[in-house]
Amino acid sequence: MLRGIHPLLGPDLLHALRTMGHGDEIVIADANFPAGTMGPKVIRADGIGGEALLEAILTHMPLDTYVEVAAFRMEVVEDPARVPDICLSYQKIVDRLAGPFAVAPVERFAFYERSRKAAYIVASGERAIYANIILKKGVLRPEA
Fold first, then answer.
1. Into how many domains does the chain fold?
2. Residues annotated as part of the active site
3. Residue 105 in domain
4. Which pLDDT score, from 0 to 100, does residue 2 have?
């Protein structure tokens, strides 16, 4: 155990977050997401929900303030205007831990393409559908 580290961040996920640089992206994927065939290294987080993982990651990782959008969710197929409850919850977590970043919708196949370019994919045990989110890492500013 370490002090000050969120308890859901195991060694693989902690290593991933530490090795990512500014602008790198990480996917938190739901249990239905085809994580193993996307290409990036997959970190298993079976049994852990998406909200808990998002909270754990954003406790330590800043989002990118140099881009227009730093967080993305998968759009609902055939109903792109609908925002699933899990995504509303994700937005609240982002607002609370990262600041006023809108979680932007991305069409399903475009979301898959973006995921293929991510640094890592975290395969969660989240059972809610459309519970996928991509986060773009920002920079830690020197303390004043």
1. 1
2. 22, 64, 112
3. yes
4. 76
Residue 52 lies in a domain: yes
pLDDT for residue 1: 66
Number of Cβ within 10 Å of residue 42's Cβ equals: 18
Dihedral angle sign, alpha carbons of residues 26, 135, 93, 86: negative
The CATH code of the domain that includes 52 is 3.40.1650.10
For residue 39, what are the domain limits?
23-136
Q: Is the pLDDT of residue 144 over 60?
A: no
Residue 14 forms part of a structural domain: no
Whether the predicted pLDDT of 91 surpasses 60: yes
C-alpha span between 43 and 135 (Å, rounded):
15
Q: Which helix (H) or strand (E) holds 57?
A: helix 50-60
Q: For 31-78, what is each residue's pLDDT tens digit?
A: 999 999 999 999 999 999 999 999 999 999 999 999 999 999 999 999
Nearest to 89 by CA among 114, 115, 53, 60: 53
Nearest CA-CA partner of 119 in 15, 9, 34: 15
Is residue 112 in some structural domain?
Answer: yes
